[in-house]
Design brief:
Layout (H helix, E strand, L loop, with lengths): L16 E2 L8 H14 L7 H14 L3 E5 L2 H11 L5 E5 L4 H8 L4 E5 L10 H7 L4 E7 L8 H11 L2 E5 L7 E2 L2 E2 L6 E5 L12 E5 L2 H11 L20 H12 L1 H18 L6 E3 L13 E5 L8 H10 L2 E2 L14 H4 L8 H7 L2 E4 L7 H16 L1 H7 L17 H4 L2
Helix pairs in contact: 1-8, 2-8, 3-4, 3-7, 9-13
Bound molecules: ligand T4K.
Length: 414
C-alpha cells in the first residue's frame, strides 16, 4: 500500500518492478535454436551452440579464450583452482556471496580488505596491508561494471608473485582505458545469470589470454577429462548446456539494444533524481564502454530527507523493489563473521558504503514512464519527509519472505 499517494488503494505500480527482471532477446531466434538443438540431439558437452557462443563472446571482449560455464559461481571456483590459489586470498567484502563462497568452498581463507569510497572497488593500499606470507592471490570485483584499479593491482601481484583474478560478473561489455574487461589479470569471470543484462538464464564464462590456463579450464569444467576416457586432474561439472547457450546467443544479438535501453534509463534516473538532496545516482565514466546495468543510488544521510532504509520502505510500498546490494557485507555473513569476528575493524569504508547504497530497477522491463513515476515517489517523499520519518523506522528489519512473483500479471509482463 502506497505510503505517499493517499488517493490510491493499491501501490503505484500494480506489478512489482524488480532490479533483476531479465532482458529477453529474439524469441524466434531462441525457438529456432531450440528446434535445431532437438533435431541434432546434442544437448550439452561443448555442443555447436556453446562453441558458437564462445566465439562470439571472445570476439566481443577481444580475448583469446572465453570459456562458458554453467554459472559464474562455478566459473570462479574453476578459476581459483586452475590458478592454484590456496592459503589466504585477498577479496572485498562488498560483493555477492559467490565471490567469497567460491574461495571458502575450496578451503581457501578469504581475507577481506577495504575499498575505495568513490569507486567501491578494492583499495590497493588496503590490499597490500592485508598480505601475509600465506597470501597466494588477489580477487578484485569490478563492482557495478566499474573497473578495479587493474594496473596497480597487477603491479602489486607481479611484485609479490601473486595470482590476480577478477570477478567480472557485472562487467561484460565494459572497458578500461579502451580495453574490454575480460583481458586483465590471470583470468576474469563473467556472469550471464537471468538478472544480468546479457543472460543465458544461468551461465557464465571465464576469459583468459593464457592458452595453458584455457586448456586447464576446459578439462576442469568437464570432470578433468582429457579426451574420452582419460582423467588427468580433479574436475567438476561446470559445462554450459546448449539451451542456455541459445538464450545467450539471442542475448548477444540484442546486446547493443540492451545497452542502449540501460544507458537511456541511467540518464533518465539521473535527471529524475537530480533535485533530491543527498541522493545521487552513481556515475559511469562515459569515456569508457559501460553496460549501465546497475542504477546505484548513494544516500548521504546528512543531506537526504530520509535514511537509506526509509527510502527502501517508501519504494517497496509502491512496488519498486529496490535492493541494498550487498548489505551487510560478507564479513557479517556466516561462516566469515565467526571465523574473523574483528574484520570490521579494518573495513570502515566498506561498512560506510554498505549503509548508503540502494539499487533501482532497470533493463528492458523499465522505461521512461516508470522512471518518471519513481522520480515522483522521491519528490513526494521529500515533500512529506517529516510525516514519513514519524511513521517509518530508520533502519529496516529484513523481510524473511523471498521476493518471488505471484501475480498473474507476470505472465504478461515483457
Ligand atoms: N559475483 C558477483 C559480483 C555477482 O554479483 C554474482 C551474481 C556472482 C558472482 C555469481 O554469478 P552467478 O553464479 O549467479 O552467475 C541476484 C542474482 O541471482 C545473482 O546472479 C547476482 N550476482 C546478484 C547481484 O543478483 P539476488 O539474490 O539479489 O536476486 P534474485 O536472483 O533473486 O533476483 C533478483 C530479482 O530479479 C528477483 O527478486 C526477481 C527478479 N527475477 C529473477 C529471476 C532469476 C526475475 O524477474 N526473473 C528471473 O528469472 O541475486
Amino acid at each position: 500500500m502506497s505510503l505517499l499517494f493517499s488517493d490510491r488503494e493499491s501501490p503505484l505500480f500494480p506489478i512489482p518492478l524488480h532490479v533483476g527482471r531479465p532482458n529477453i532477446g529474439s524469441r524466434e531466434a531462441i525457438h529456432r535454436h531450440i528446434d535445431e538443438i532437438l533435431d541434432r540431439r546434442w544437448l550439452s558437452n561443448e555442443g555447436p551452440v556453446v562453441l558458437e557462443l564462445e566465439r562470439r563472446l571472445a570476439d566481443y571482449v577481444g580475448v583469446k579464450h572465453c570459456l562458458t560455464v554453467c554459472n559464474a559461481t562455478i566459473g570462479l571456483e574453476i578459476a581459483y583452482r586452475v590458478t592454484e590459489l590456496s592459503g589466504e586470498v585477498i577479496v572485498p567484502s562488498n560483493t555477492f556471496a559467490a565471490t567469497v563462497h567460491a574461495l571458502h568452498w575450496q578451503g581457501i581463507k578469504p581475507v577481506f580488505c577495504d575499498i575505495d569510497p568513490m569507486t567501491h572497488n578494492l583499495d590497493v593500499g588496503s590490499v597490500e596491508a592485508c598480505i601475509t606470507d600465506k597470501t597466494t592471490g588477489i580477487v578484485g570485483v569490478h563492482l557495478w561494471g566499474r573497473p578495479c584499479p587493474v594496473h596497480d593491482l597487477q603491479r602489486l601481484a607481479d611484485r609479490l608473485g601473486l595470482k590476480l583474478i577478477f570477478d567480472a560478473a557485472h562487467a561484460f561489455g565494459c572497458s578500461l582505458g579502451g580495453q574490454m574487461i575480460g583481458g586483465f589479470g590471470d583470468a576474469e569471470v563473467f556472469s550471464f545469470h537471468a538478472t544480468k543484462f546479457m543472460n543465458c538464464g544461468e551461465g557464465g564464462a571465464i576469459a583468459t589470454n593464457d592458452d595453458d590456463l584455457a586448456a586447464l579450464i576446459r578439462q576442469t569444467r568437464s570432470f578433468g577429462f582429457q579426451g574420452c576416457d582419460r582423467i588427468v586432474r580433479v574436475g567438476t561439472n561446470g559445462k554450459m548446456n546448449e539451451f542456455s547457450a541459445a538464450v545467450g546467443l539471442s542475448s548477444m544479438d540484442s546486446i547493443d539494444e540492451f545497452i542502449q535501453v540501460n544507458s537511456s534509463n541511467y540518464r533518465g534516473y539521473r535527471e529524475a533524481l537530480a533535485d533530491i538532496p543527498g541522493v545521487e545516482v552513481l556515475a559511469y565514466d562515459e569515456q569508457e564502454r559501460n553496460n549501465f546495468q546497475y542504477i546505484v543510488v548513494d544516500v548521504d544521510e546528512q543531506q537526504s530527507p530520509l535514511t537509506r532504509d526509509q527510502w527502501l520502505q517508501v519504494l517497496h510500498a509502491d512496488n519498486v523493489l529496490a535492493r541494498r546490494y550487498f548489505y551487510p557485507g560478507m564479513h557479517r555473513a556466516e561462516p566469515y563473521q565467526s571465523l574473523d569476528p574483528f574484520a570490521a575493524k579494518r573495513l570502515p569504508v566498506t561498512d560506510a558504503v554498505l549503509r548508503r547504497i540502494l539499487v533501482l530497477p532497470t533493463g528492458t522491463a523499465v522505461g521512461s514512464q516508470e522512471i518518471e513515476l519513481i522520480g515522483k515517489i522521491f519528490q513526494q517523499a521529500t515533500v512529506h519527509a517529516s510525516m514519513l520519518k514519524r511513521q517509518l523506522p530508520s533502519t529496516l528489519v529484513l523481510p524473511t519472505a523471498p521476493l518471488v512473483p505471484v501475480s498473474p500479471g507476470y505472465r504478461k509482463a515483457a
